[in-house]
Structures are given as C-alpha cells and as structure tokens.
Amino acid sequence: MLARSFLLLIVAAGMTGCYQSPRKTVTTEDYHLHEVKLPNGKIIRVESMAKMADVMRGMMYRESLAPDRGMLFYHGAPGEYPYWMYQVKIPLDIIWLDRYKLISEISPRTPPCLSEKSSECPKFGGSRQSLYVLELAAGEAQNNKLQLGDKIEF
Questions:
Q1: Which residues of the chain carry a pLDDT beneath 50?
Q2: Domains in the chain, ordered, with CATH?
C-alpha cells in the first residue's frame, strides 16, 4: 500500500512538471484573425473578407485600428477594384496585391469620407489588376517601407 502511494506521488509530481500555463488567453476574436507577413518580417493579424457583404462593409464605422491589425479582402478573380472611404471613420493605407501577392498599388494615408452622401466620396486606386486588397492603419505602409513589387505572405 505504501509503495502504491509512493508511486502515485511520483506520477503526480511528474505530471505537474509537464503543465505549462498558457501564454495568452484565447478570445473569439483570435479565431477570426489570420497572420499576414510583411517583407520586413512584421506580422499583421487581419480579418479576412471574402463574402460580398463583408467586402462592402469593410472598415465602416470603426473608431480605430491598431498598428498590428488590418483587413484583407479577397475578390475571387483578378480585376480593377477601386476603394472608397464612405462611412470609414479613420484614415487607412490601402494596398492592392496581384494574384502572386505582390504589391501592385498603394494609397497611403487615405482619408475618411466625412460626407453623408456616398456619391460625394472619392474613389482610390483600382487602376491595376489585383486579387487582394490589404488595409492597414494609416502610416503603416511607410513605417514598414512597403513598395510596389514587394511580396506579402499569407
């Protein structure tokens, strides 16, 4: 009986040594974010948008965007996709990517459209073939030295 108790004590002690506390609490938001790697190695966690309703809504009504967050739009087929800032409350860097995930166009520090009429909001970019569009906080393209032809990994 004493040998059995001793054995259980050794097993229990060994198991506690295997336990590692989690580094971070996982939230439901974490399940909806994907990693995008910039050419300088910086990781941006993005929300991916592929459904038309999500693509149309995009960054509307958002009050802020952290420097390590973004939104990645997938258009389904290469094309020219101009963007506008209707109902977007914060300036953004808008980055168009071709099917090879190479930067084909950048609209830095794109201002929000403060008009209540969507018809009064200017369109930006979309003059080159792209398949993806990445939106980052204003200034992040410059901060990370993004240039035409750079490859984004995701």
A1: 2, 4-21, 26, 28
A2: 24-143 (2.60.120.1140)
